[in-house]
Amino acid sequence: MTRVVRSAAMSETVDAQARRHLLRADRQEDLCFALWHPSTGQTRTTALVERLILPREGERNVHGNASFESHYFTRALSEAAQADAGLVLMHSHPGGLAWQGMSPDDINTEQSRAAAVYGATKLPFVGLTIASDGAWSARFWERMAPRQYAKRDCATVRVVGERLRSTFMEALAPVPRGTEAQIRTISAWGKKKQADLARLRVGIVGAGSVGAFIAESMARTGIEDVTVIDFDRIETKNLDRLLYATRTNVGELKATALAGHLGACATGARFEALPVVAAVYEEAGFRAALDCDVLFSCVDRPWGRHVLNLIAYAHLIPVVDGGIAVRTNRHEELAAADWRAHTVTVGHQCMQCMGQYDAGLVQLEREGYLDDPTYIQGLDKRHPLRARENVFAFSMACASLQTLQMLAMVLDPLGRSNPGQQLYHFVGSFMEPSEHGKCGPECLFADVVALGDHCGFEVTGDPPANRDPVLEKPHT
């Protein structure tokens, strides 16, 4: 699939409310306005639908087709301007299935109001159409010159929550051609599910041991676009865990080395692995993450997790997070080895509330304390920041759990898309019962859902000045 330039997304809550209003029992068309906020990635802009502005009595007419009165448009435009948001016009095609085209009347209705919307909001007017099967299609009306606005189709529309459900415009996101190497994979869940899965852009944040396993599983499963985000280089001490590295790779950039390795593993008819040499808390890494449809969190520091937590809610990009904890006793014997996986998205408990990172440590990392050996040595020796233990097999197991979380969310097998928070204990060989926690009332992330660039959080920044130096590859 070619790199997507425009897309739209909404939460399952907004989708459900829109379905109730737009898909009428009498099968007549209906409409409503909504507010949207931009999510600006490196190459993709996404319209995040925050909330609907439903019509009041006398503001719209349903007569087989649907139309709205000027005072409804004026009210919606005023609400958008006050909220520092863009304006969306949603309408239904009751007899349609899948991605919908536009009739001349549809085009005239949207294009004729694009100038007024841009003048009031300084954002493009966005149109969304829902078909009878719940499939969405979307477009931006972009200003080309004074009083000239052109339609620019989105390639995808995503509905995010318990599931990740996507609709694709086939002209911009064609169905991938199956290959002989994918016969067993496609037979497991069918051509349609494979097509939906393969067209997702997947981001791997952290090209360490867990990220490497996940990235290779994506390439072998047939995902067409993988983005690898990591700033570090391969060191000799990594070789006992990095699936893609040998001694000849020592000194190479992890993102570049892993992306190159994936090309040899990919089973799709076309495949692109994009290496991004940055941390996710740096501007380049952050914007690359916003180009993705789903992210895997393979980082263990608080700042990176804090950024990914924000992305999951403010930008409606599900984040599949995981972690490994290994503990030895005073005799240097293995006492515990646990790994967990969970999906962080709208309606799920956030990483901060489930204790995956300490918000108080984010600022300390920004100031460089977590790269200060003196500070780290002063912590209790059981503190997670002092943990160094890990094993290839433990990384493989954790990566498996995270991969299965993502597959369940996209494939929705038998309607069971959310495995919950999973925790496995190697010592004793048992899995804890899955949990489905909720954030506390004081959690700030519930207040930024679908606000995107307008969320008010500044989470990116320059790397700490004393971050571990990146080793240069030795000359041979």
Automatic annotation (TrEMBL):
Organism: Bradyrhizobium vignae
Pfam family, any one: ThiF
GO biological process assignments: cyclic threonylcarbamoyladenosine biosynthetic process
Occurrences of domain THIF-type NAD/FAD binding fold (ranges): 182-412
Protein name stated in the entry: THIF-type NAD/FAD binding fold domain-containing protein
SUPFAM superfamilies in alphabetical order: Activating enzymes of the ubiquitin-like proteins
Domain of life: Bacteria
Molecular function terms from GO: tRNA threonylcarbamoyladenosine dehydratase; ubiquitin-like modifier activating enzyme activity
InterPro entries: ThiF/MoeB/HesA (IPR045886), ThiF_NAD_FAD-bd (IPR000594), Ubiquitin-activating_enz (IPR035985)
